[in-house]
Specification:
Shape: globular
Active site: 103
Helix content: 40-55%
Strand order of the largest sheet: 5-6-1-7-8
Organism: Actinophytocola oryzae
Binding site for Mg(2+): 12, 102
Largest sheet: 5 strands, mixed
Number of strands: 12
Distance between the termini: 43 Å
Order of helices and strands: EHEEHHEHEEHHEHEHHHHHEHEEHEH
GO molecular function, one term: damaged DNA binding
Radius of gyration: 22 Å
Oligomer: single chain
Low-confidence stretches: 348-359, 389-397
Number of domains: 3
Protein name: DNA polymerase IV
Mean pLDDT: 86
CATH class of the largest domain: Alpha Beta
CATH architecture of the largest domain: 2-Layer Sandwich
Structural class: alpha+beta
Number of helices: 15
Strand content: 15-25%
CATH superfamily of the largest domain: Reverse transcriptase/Diguanylate cyclase domain
């Protein structure tokens, strides 16, 4: 039977925010760095080795790593670095699928005659990112997107790992179950409670057993991945179906005013990105994570698509206020928003009555100031004196 070549690259920048800080400040190189104060937005590998993790409370992180250097986030620097890295990706191959600000899939199967085998292309890519952008990057190479991503995770930091088609299951099956996409804390606990600790043990279970254990969707999903069944190609130019951002807010007690301030910050950022992409949205989605790691989602669909910050914020505030009693009772550790049901910008319907101000003029003026002077040049009064740290979008701006 014919087995296709391993031609998919998963390229993932190492400790992205922290690496940018270490690149830009030589005094930070080789030292434990934490980006973000109240909540860890990123940690260098020197800090990670001492147990510091993303979304961890800042106080706990400093107890684990008291010698850490804490720096405030610089979102404009991270965005610029991301754009420079994606230029390297696109110089490598036209088939690039960005999946976050710091990682992408690349298909290099058609480049063998002009650029060499995939492993050589991957090594050249890593060298180009370091030389042109000054950042370390890890690359996994495999026949499927899933396995390429697993390979890059195993190879971190600053590594390269090629999984040949003839050795896929030998590589995959000894790995812990947490390497499977979709296995978080809850699913991991369910599997480990039954003595299932490796991918190979998952692969030995029938699909019906897994669905009975985890539910139809999760069971079928994990059964396929445990056998490296992932037919998805690298997709280029796919228009995003939603635009979102989220912020981990730590384990301390948060007032309704705290939560509304975080929400306003998230809406400001996502609405700005929405307008930059010349899109409008009909649905506002609020995502929450509780102190017990449970999650909840609330959404509202508007009559007309809009890119107006105030309309989107009013809608999001309504969703938040409806669940405030639950949040205050159970504790909230993460707030996220996404704007979905996207249309083109010109699909937004103007509403009567019109006044003398051009619709969207205020948003456009604020966007222009932030584009020129940085995202913190203009801010809401409710955000003054608060931690400016904010998570990055799922895709680069």
């Amino acid at each position: 039977m014919f087995v296709s070549e391993a031609t998919i690259l998963h390229a993932d920048l190492d400790a992205f925010y922290a690496s940018v800080e270490q690149r830009d400040n030589p005094d930070l190189r080789g030292r434990p760095v934490i980006v973000g104060g109240g909540v860890v937005l990123a940690a260098s590998y020197e800090a990670k080795r001492l147990g510091v993790r993303t979304a961890m409370g800042g106080a706990r992180a400093l107890r684990l790593c008291p010698q850490a250097i804490v720096v405030p986030p610089r979102m404009s620097a991270y965005s610029a670095a991301s754009k420079a890295v994606f230029e390297v990706f696109r110089d490598t191959t036209p088939l690039v699928e960005g999946i976050s600000i710091d990682e992408a899939f690349l298909e290099v199967g058609g480049l063998r005659k002009i650029a060499g085998p995939p492993e050589l292309i991957a090594e050249r890519l890593r060298r180009a990112v370091m030389e042109r952008v000054g950042l370390p990057i890890t690359v996994g190479v495999a026949r499927t997107k899933f396995l390429a991503k697993v390979a890059s995770g195993v190879a971190k930091p600053d590594g390269l790992l090629v999984v040949p088609p003839t050795g896929e299951l030998e590589f995959l099956h000894p790995l812990p179950v947490e390497r499977l996409w979709g296995v978080g804390k809850v699913t991991s606990a369910k599997l480990r409670d039954r003595g299932i600790t490796t991918v190979g043990q998952v692969a030995k279970l029938s699909e019906s057993t897994l669905t009975a254990m985890l539910g139809k969707g999760s069971g079928r999903h994990l059964h396929a991945l445990a056998h490296n069944q992932d037919p998805r190609p690298v997709r280029v130019g796919r228009r995003r179906r939603s635009i979102g951002a989220q912020r981990a807010i730590g384990w301390s007690t948060h007032t309704p005013e705290d939560l509304e301030a975080v929400l306003a910050q998230l809406i400001d950022r996502t609405a700005r990105r929405l307008r930059a992409a010349k899109r409008s949205a009909r649905t506002v989605v609020l995502r929450l994570r509780f102190a017990d790691f449970a999650r909840a989602t609330r959404s509202h669909t508007l009559v007309h698509a809009t890119a107006d910050t105030e309309v989107l914020l009013v809608t999001a505030r309504g969703l938040l206020r409806a669940v405030l009693p639950m949040l205050l009772d159970r504790g909230c550790t993460l707030v996220g928003v996404s704007l979905a049901n996207l249309d083109d910008e010109d699909a937004a319907q103007l509403m009567l009555p019109f006044d003398d101000v051009e619709p969207g003029a205020l948003d456009s003026a604020v966007d222009h100031v932030r584009d020129r002077f940085g995202s913190l040049a203009v801010t809401r009064a409710v955000l003054l004196g608060r931690d400016p740290g904010l998570s990055v979008p799922l895709l680069p701006d």
